[in-house]
Amino acid sequence: MELRQLRYFVSVAEELHFGRAAERLYISTPTLSQQIKQLEREIGATLLIRHSRGVELTPAGQVFLARARETIQAAGLALKDTRRAAGLDEPVLRLGLLNGIPGWLPAALEQLATERFPNSTVTLEAGTTTEQVRMLTAGEIDLGLVRTPLTLPAATTSEHLADEELGVLLAATHPLASSPELSLDDLAGLELIWIPRAAAPEFYDDALRRLGDRIRLSDISMSHSQLRSALLVRRDAISLGSRRAATPDVVWRPLCGRPLVTRYAAIWRTDSHNPVLRAMTVSPGLTVVRQQVVET
């Protein structure tokens, strides 16, 4: 039994849903499910009851949750106290977690941090592209993740990490849901519910420019996590998103010619003295992360 498995179980127990827990842990749902099944086999008892709406804890699972939390906390304190006794400072990288980003990307950066600077710790600060820039400028994070295009502040640099195709999200009951691919003409006159412009102004403007003026912009906007729910209320509307956002109730369709792409980049201050960041950005820098491909 590993600490990693305990953390996985605690996440599922707190979310009561494998999909949400997997997003929180930046791993795939099948991987998480396999790890929990392996844990149950090792213990010899069922910890979770799985059903269509999510999961619930068995009596054994409730006991194990309490003990798992205690074990995780004790392990963290043991590491921290030991390092303090040895006179070692705990290196920390404060990573900005961009809303709606593919889970593998922050996970890959965390892995790179621990590989380049062993025993370092990565903490997360969530926010939009605009909030990432503000936090970086204010010294609240060391490394931010953003959507581009983006005009960078002074003394800030960036490195492109990944591209992800943007397509159309719509309710499964929408008349266009039966089409395997959509054209811009298909979208003419439809209501588009999307993220607030303030979240990433240059990215937002660039995407709408590529769509042209045939789409009717909605009077409401939503965060990435709310878009699917909005489409189930306004079933004649559409949104933009990645294939990852598709569910049985909300389908994803590519656009002809693939005109829309989300480009993700890392940003950091050139005058930063953070040792973990410096270790990550020296040659070859973040290229090992960029070589990974976003699933399409």
From TrEMBL:
One of its GO terms (cellular component) is protein-DNA complex. InterPro entries: LysR_HTH_N, LysR_subst-bd, WH-like_DNA-bd_sf, WH_DNA-bd_sf. PROSITE patterns: HTH_LYSR. It holds the Pfam family LysR_substrate. GO terms for molecular function: DNA binding; DNA-binding transcription factor activity. Residues 1-58 form the HTH lysR-type domain. It comes from the Bacteria. Keywords: DNA-binding, Transcription, Transcription regulation. Belongs to the LysR transcriptional regulatory family. This is LysR family transcriptional regulator. It comes from Kribbella capetownensis.
